[in-house]
Automatic annotation (TrEMBL):
The modification 4-aspartylphosphate is found at residue 51. GO terms for cellular component: cytosol; protein-DNA complex. Keywords: DNA-binding, Phosphoprotein. Residues 124-227 bind DNA. One of its GO terms (molecular function) is phosphorelay response regulator activity. It holds the Pfam family Response_reg. It comes from Subtercola vilae. The keyword Lyase does not apply. This is DNA-binding response regulator. Residues 2-115 form the Response regulatory domain. The keyword Phosphoprotein applies. One of its GO terms (biological process) is regulation of DNA-templated transcription. Residues 124-227 form the OmpR/PhoB-type domain.
Length: 227
């Protein structure tokens, strides 16, 4: 598996390069935003890991640039801890967000989770609600008629949450269950991330995101897909 790491801190690049190579990953590095885009185009990595505060192009601009042509999973690794920074990165197309300082075990878990989410799916049904159609097998979401569909792009993380909700229609899925399914058993306290991603799904799929009809919050418990 090839990972592109983009960070303007040489010590961070060197440490991640050594650590991830020791785990068997093929590593490509970039020291600024322009180099990151060029390396992504040249090497077609399986995952992109990038900082937000880089010279020449910042991380959000890099995410926009990559999303113009690729659905490769993007993991932001940044010292910016504000919710606005996280939401901006996720809106741009990032799939997950880790704040510095971080443990290598957490980083490896996030990498594994993103890798699992992009694996080939089994044959699964087509689910429709409102004017949205979700083909779980083809991992395709569109709005409107099949003859003239408007494709709705989801990040791998958004897809992972959507898929488990759609496969359990009407069933309450607790926050712990969703967090464990998407991020693994060591991330059951990351309810803020889950709230942000469910909000992103509502923006993309609900007729009125501020008054959700299909992706319902069960206060203090979790979420439910109500077909």
């Amino acid at each position: 598996m090839k990972i592109l790491i983009a960070d303007d801190d040489p010590q961070v690049l060197r440490a991640l390069n050594v650590t991830l190579r020791a785990r068997g990953y093929d590593i490509v590095t970039a020291g600024d935003g322009v180099e990151a885009l060029n390396r992504a185009i040249e090497h077609h990595p399986d995952l992109v890991m990038l900082d937000l505060g880089m010279p020449r192009l910042d991380g959000v601009e890099v995410i926009h640039g990559i999303r113009g042509w690729s659905d490769v999973p993007i993991l932001v690794v940044s010292g910016r801890t504000g919710e606005a920074d996280k939401v901006e990165a996720l809106d741009a197309g990032a799939d997950d967000y880790v704040t510095k300082p971080f443990s290598i075990d957490e980083l490896l878990a996030r990498i594994r989770a993103l890798t699992r989410r992009t694996a080939a799916p089994d044959d699964l049904p087509v689910v429709t609600f409102a004017d949205v159609t979700v083909d779980l097998s083809a991992k395709r979401v569109y709005r409107g008629s099949a003859s003239a569909p408007e494709t709705i792009r989801l990040t791998p993380t958004e897809w992972a949450i959507l898929e488990v909700l759609l496969r359990n229609p009407g069933r309450l899925l607790t926050r712990d269950a969703l967090l464990t399914h998407v991020w693994g058993p060591h991330h059951t306290n990351d309810s803020g991330y889950l709230r942000v991603y469910v909000g992103q799904l509502r923006k993309k799929l609900e007729p009125v995101p501020s008054n959700p009809r299909y992706f319902i919050t069960e206060s203090g418990m979790g979420y439910r897909f109500s077909p």
